[in-house]
Design goal:
Layout (H helix, E strand, L loop, with lengths): L2 H31 L5 H39 L1
Helix pairs in contact: 1-2
């Protein structure tokens, strides 16, 4: 896998995680607005928030590794 495709995959993973965070936050907010605050209704979006956070963190590590690899390649070729 080239560094550029790894970078692209990392950025896409970050975007997907952020989209999930926004979706889950909206579900939690709408449940609170409707006074439907039972723990069963909020359990899934709260769990998904943690998973989305982990996805963003993992994807950020991919982006960082790709950035470091590209930097190293540029240093070697320069």
């Amino acid at each position: 896998m080239s560094s550029i495709s790894a970078l692209s995959s990392g950025v896409m993973g970050i975007q997907k995680g952020l989209d999930g965070l926004n979706r889950d936050a909206a579900q939690i907010a709408s449940a609170k607005q409707m006074k439907n605050e039972s723990s069963a209704d909020l359990a899934q979006p709260l769990t998904n928030l943690v998973l989305d956070k982990l996805q963003v963190a993992a994807s950020a590590k991919v982006v960082k590794a790709a950035d470091e690899t590209l930097g190293t390649l540029l240093d070697v070729l320069a």
